[in-house]
Write a structure and sequence with these properties.
four-stranded mixed sheet; Rossmann fold
Amino acid sequence: MAAARHDCDFIAFEVFAPAVASTLGKLARGGVDNVRVLLVDGAQGLAQLLDDESVTELWTFFADPWHKARHHKRRLVNPNFADVVAAKLAPGGLWRLATDWEDYALWQRDILDGHPRFRNVHDGWAPRFKARPVTKYEARGLAQGRTVHDLTYERLP
């Protein structure tokens, strides 16, 4: 995705060290130099490392759905994180989300539809973001018969 958009700077947050190493290797082999990969929790990194209204797009693709009800408090997309994203996105900035777990997709949509600083660009599910490559998580979900749900929200002024 970054190779196709040389005019943009990308920051990737990842908590799994082997995934960081793999990503850095792929970037180096592809000669892609507009990505910074940080071994840090994405919610904390976004909140602490980026200025308010400095992000034009945020992508949250296939975040851990934390299936069991007792673990829902661990889900990345929650009201507090939505507040952080609203602060970091520039007015008009987009938050693109994708998940293959319907209950998490509905959870995300309920939270963001109710947030005063976001507007659902598609008034429901978004079409698949064409620039998003098929990840191993998406491929696994599709192979297991799950449907991928995409959402796109605009940060209001």
